[in-house]
Amino acid sequence: MPTYHYIAEKPEEGCPRCRKGFDLRRPLDRPALTHCPLCKKPVVKVLQPFNTPKITKPLSVSDAKSAGFTVLEKRCDGSYEKR
Ligand SMILES: [Zn+2]
Q1: How far apart are CA 80 and CA 22, in angstroms?
Q2: Average pLDDT over residues 51-68
Q3: How high is the pLDDT of residue 55?
Q4: Cα–Cα distance, 56 to 10 (Å, whole number)
Q5: What letter does residue 57 receive in the DSSP assignment?
Q6: Closest of 68, 32, 38 to residue 20, by C-alpha
Q7: pLDDT band of 61, cuts 50, 70, 90
Q8: Distance from the CA of 3 to the center of ligand 1, in angstroms?
Q9: What per-residue confidence (pLDDT) applies to 4?
Q10: Distance CA 81, CA 70 (A)
Q11: Putative regulatory protein FmdB zinc ribbon domain spans which residues (predicted)?
């Protein structure tokens, strides 16, 4: 379940919780939260969560491997070899 970061649209009107922003785990198929569950003021979703590593450079094979991906290389005979 992804974690989203929300913050009050107008922090001066929000409660202590949404004024500083809060994290909420939410299933992907749920619509985005639009109002603070506590004070019902409008909140906006922060698109770049603070605790998610930023991927700014292209993912290299070694990066993919260290991230736990299995990298498959196509061999000449058409089979795949696990590297
Ligand atoms: Zn609030």
Answers
A1: 45
A2: 68
A3: 55
A4: 30
A5: S
A6: 38
A7: confident
A8: 18
A9: 86
A10: 10
A11: 1-48
CA dist., res. 71 & res. 61, Å (int): 7
Residues with a beta carbon under 5 angstroms from ion ligand 1:
14-15, 18, 36, 38-39
CA of 81 to the centre of ligand 1 (A): 53
Positive or negative, the CA dihedral 54, 60, 62, 64 is: positive
pLDDT in tens, 19-56: 999 998 888 788 889 999 999 999 999 876 455 565 56
- Please identify which residue in the block is written with the tokens 């379940």: 1
* Cα–ligand 1 centroid distance for 34 (angstroms): 11
Q: What is the mean pLDDT of residues 69-77?
A: 72
Domain-by-domain residue ranges, the chain?
Answer: 3-82
Question: SS3 string of 5-36?
Answer: EEEECCHHHCCHHHHCCEEEECCCCCCCCCEC
Identity (one letter) of the amino acid at 41? K
